[in-house]
Specification:
- By secondary structure, this protein is mainly alpha-helical.
- It has one domain.
- It contains five helices and two strands, in the order E-E-H-H-H-H-H.
- The chain has a two-stranded antiparallel ribbon with strand order 1-2.
- Strand 1 and strand 2 form a beta hairpin.
- Helix 1 runs antiparallel to helix 3, helix 1 runs antiparallel to helix 5 and helix 3 crosses helix 4.
- The longest helix has 25 residues.
């Protein structure tokens, strides 16, 4: 617990597991909102109905589902995994999603997809913070 003398408010140290779970929660919401708002782009609904879209095959849909299952799973796993496994899962998946979102953001630069670029940038920042928090995972102090 740290006291801020100017405001008189207490600032509690937050456990790294809770920080990581919170960051993955924010990432998950950004993915959901980005994909939801994409439904409002021209001809998106028609392509979903006809099957003429990026996820137009069962395999593509399965792979997208597999990839997008990771962030919500990381919310729970960040709270329950042992520290070393937890650290490395957050580093690996955090790097993977950071790279993926940077590439998606670069590939989405069009007027109709400016919202997607915004979400991609936010998600890349959040997943970068996840990687940084995992790298800085506190060590036991010896007395």
């Amino acid at each position: 617990m740290i006291s801020n003398k100017k405001s008189g408010l207490l600032n509690f140290d937050v456990n790294v597991k809770i920080k990581l779970a919170g960051l993955w929660t924010a990432v998950t919401f950004c993915y959901l909102y980005g994909d939801y708002f994409e439904l409002y782009t021209p001809e998106k609904v028609e392509s979903l109905i006809s099957g003429d879209n990026v996820l137009g095959s069962p395999f593509s849909l399965f792979m997208a589902s597999l990839i997008l299952a990771i962030p919500p799973l990381m919310i729970a796993l960040s709270l329950v995994l042992k520290p070393m496994i937890n650290k490395w899962c957050n580093i690996v998946f955090g790097l993977f999603f950071t790279i993926m979102m940077v590439l998606i953001g670069i590939g989405s630069i069009t007027p109709w997809y400016s919202f997607y670029v915004l979400y991609a940038a936010i998600e890349a920042v959040l997943t970068s913070i996840i990687v940084w928090q995992a790298i800085k995972w506190p060590r036991e102090t010896t007395v």
